[in-house]
Amino acid sequence: MMTRLNTVDSSESLGEPAVNRSVLVLNSGSSSIKFALFGLEPEPTALCRGILSEPDRATAIDQLTQRVSDHVDRYPLAGIGHRVVHGGPALRDPQIVTDGLLETLGQLVRFAPNHLPDEIHLIEAARRLRPDTPQIVCFDTAFHADLPEVARSLAVPRRYAEEGVRRYGFHGLSYSFLMEELRRRAGSSQTDARVLLAHLGNGSSLAAVRGGRSIDTSMGFTPIGGVVMSTRSGDLDPGVVTYIARSTGFDADRVEYELSHHAGLVGLSDGTADMRDLLAREASDESCRLAVSIYCYEIKKRIGTYAAALGGLDVLVFSGGIGEHAPSVRARICSGLEFLGVDIDAENNTANAPVISKSPARVAVHVIPTDEEVVIAKAAYRLLH
User: Fold this and answer.
1) Is 140 one of the annotated active-site residues of the chain?
2) N or C: which end of the chain has fewer CB within 10 A?
């Protein structure tokens, strides 16, 4: 089943590692905070995981520390790690939080006004509650930091490019994990090949990777761009944006909110953003059928585009809530891609098997559950150990 992150509120104890300190990882979204407590070690073991729904950032740290208090009593907290959606043009590597870094993040809010303020408030709240506990941040844009100039540049007047207007790409922590997990499962021959990663969830994006390096990605200047998502529009003719502004009288912030929260699948279906509901209703509801069809069609088109950019395709990876748990969506996306060498096994696909391509097949198709939190925990170990 696909996860409804905005309604789940749970925590799960997962184990007792042979460590004596821990790191709390916070993955802040627009309507929830995923959290996990790991042992501080090179290959972190999760002590517990959970989701805090509809959090108040000012009190979230207090609630979270209460949730993990039993474990923290046994394994004192060595640090707190955060996913930060945007590192701007310069911030790439994981960093320990300082006053100077917080000031820099404040200057980057203009790049991600829907995300960075909440993430900064969470860091500041953690500082107030635990002033002596180091905090580290990992940037979701870092995976794409070395995009080729032809892929990262936007056709706008140069003065905007000099202000940092470019394609950044997102879901970088997920893509980092997927590449590492692909290497563990399949070896370096596949990770060094022509790889297409599809993180499909409430937010959806794709990344083309060659030789372990991101060469193109669907999300652009903001996480609103790219393919159609649950509530985000994806790429639009700029004239649509100006039309909405003129016809409604909305200012820039309100237009951005409209395209971030009321567009995408929820806009196409006139009210349903969850893929499970759309699939259940499409046989009797034309708007739901159209929403699913457009979602699959746009992703299929993007796979073809990136196969051309890569000069072919060797590996396709599905991940994210939809990518991991929706066999019918994967099947529709892959149908018609046989000319690229994509040929999936219907039985394995229905079972959400780790590999769903036929054997032999020219393109290996994997289903890999992603884990952004463990990427942050590993970075915390490197910085704090």
Assistant:
1) yes
2) N
